[in-house]
Amino acid sequence: MKKTSQHGQWSSRMVFILAATGSAVGLGNIWKFPYIAGENGGGAFVLTYLLCILAIGLPIMMAEIMLGRRGRQSPINTMRVLAVESNASALWSWLGWLGVVAGFLILSYYSVIAGWAMAYVVRVASGVFDGATADGVSHIFGEFIADPEKLLAWHSLFMIITMLVVARGVKGLERAAKFLMPALILILILLVGYSMNQGAFQQGVSFLFSADFSKINAAGVLTAMGHAFFTLSLGMGAIMVYGSYLPSRVSIGSTTVIIALADTAVALLAGLAIFPIVFANGLTPASGPGLIFQTLPIAFGHMAYGAFFGTLFFLLLVFAAWSSSISLIEPAVAWLVENRKMSRMRACIWAGLLTWLIGIGTVLSFNLAADLTVFGKTFFDLMDYLTANIMLPLGGLCIALFAGWVMAAETSAKELSLPNDHIYKAWRFIVRYVSPVAVLLVFLNVIGLI
C-alpha cells in the first residue's frame, strides 16, 4: 500500500478545499442549475435539491475522497490496490476505468461549450448585444454555432489553457485553484450586487426560496437527485484523484461538508445573479439550456452597464469551466504517468490531443454533422447521454457499494476519522442503503425505465 502519491500532495487543507470546490463548481452550477430550477418551480426544487445533497452527495463524496486517499494513485490503480486489500475481485479496477473514461469524454464536449463562453466574453465586451432583440440574439448564436472553424478555434484554445495548468502537476493545480476560485466568487458577488440594483431582486429571491410544492412532481424530485449527484463531480475520477493528494492529517468529513456548502452556495448565488435580471426584463426563467447564451444576452443588451457586467458573467462561466476541466483530465494524465512511465508533459500532450480530437465530433454535431445521428442523437447528445445518464450514476453506485459493502468497516472508519462512532455509523448506513437506492432511482429514471 502506497502511503504517498508519486504526483505530490496538496500543501494545505484550504488548497484542497479550493481545488475540489473548483472541480465541483462548473457549468452545471452556473449554466444548468438556474434553468432546471426555473423549469421545476424554483423554491420547491431548490429545497429538494438541498436535501438530496445531504442524502446523496455528501456521503458519496466522502466515500470517493476516502478511496482516493487510501489508494494514493490514479483511480484505476487505486481501485486495483484497494480490491486486493479488501480481498475482493480484481474487476473492481473497472470502476477506476469507468471514472477515467467518463471524465475524459465529458471534457471532450465540455471544452466546446466552454469555448462558447470564451467567445461570448469577446462578443459581449465589444457591444454586439447592445440593444439587440430576441431574434437578433438568436441569429447571432445560430450563426456562431453554424461555423465549425470558429467553434474549433475556441475549443482548441480552451484545451490549450487547460493542459498548460495540468502539465505543471499538483503545483499547477494549486496555483489555478488559488486564483480561479477567489476570482469566481468575487465576480459572482459583483453580479449579485448588480442584480440587486438593476433587476427585480425581490422577485428573484421569492422565486428561489419560496417553496410551492404543488409546482414540483416526481420527475422534478428525480431531476434534483440527479443534479445533486452530478454537481459535486462524483463518479468521474476527479474527486478520487484529488483525494489521493490529500494529506493524511486532514479530516475528510469536515472538509467534504465545506466543499458541498461552497458548491451549493455558488449555485444559489448564480440563481440570485440571473433570475432578477431575467424577471426585470420580462423574460421567462424556464428558458431551458438557452437561458445563458440566448436569453441573458438580451437582458444585458438593454441594461445600464450591461456590456461590462455581461462580460463579467461570461468570464465567470469560463473560470468555472476551467477549474472543472483541469480535474476532468487529471485522472487520465496520472494513469499515463504511473503505468506508461511518461513524463507529465508528454502525458498531457497525448491526453489533451486525444480529448481535442474527440471534441471535434461535438463541434461538427452543431453544423456539418447536425443531421448525422445515432439512435436519434447527434454526437454531442450521445456523449452527454452516455456520460451523464449512464457512466456517472453507475460510477457513483459502485463507489457507494465498494465503500459500504466491500471495504472493511475498520478501514473506512480509520480513513475517515469522524468525530465519533455515531456519525460514522450514520455515514455507513447512508452509503450502504440510502445512497445506492437514490442513485439507482436516478439511473432508472434517466434511461426511461421509471
End-to-end Cα distance, whole Å, is 42 Å
The global form is: globular
Low-confidence stretches: none
Q: What do we call the CATH homologous superfamily?
A: Amino acid/polyamine transporter I
Helix content: over 70%
Radius of gyration: 21 Å
DSSP summary: helix tally: 18
* Total DSSP E strands: 0
Protein structure class: mainly alpha
The domain count comes to 1
**Could you tell me the strand content as a percent range?**
under 5%
What top-tier CATH class fits best?
Mainly Alpha
Report what the structure shows.
The two termini are 42 Å apart. The protein contains 18 helices and no strands. Helix 7 crosses helix 14 (306-339), helix 9 crosses helix 12 (252-280) and helix 12 (252-280) crosses helix 13. The longest helix has 34 residues, at 306-339. With 450 residues, it is mainly alpha-helical. It has helices spanning 13-24, 27-39, 43-71, 75-85, 93-125, 134-145, 148-166, 169-198, 201-209, 218-230, 238-243, 252-280, 290-300, 306-339, 344-364, 379-406, 409-416, 421-446. The model has no long low-confidence stretch (mean pLDDT 91).
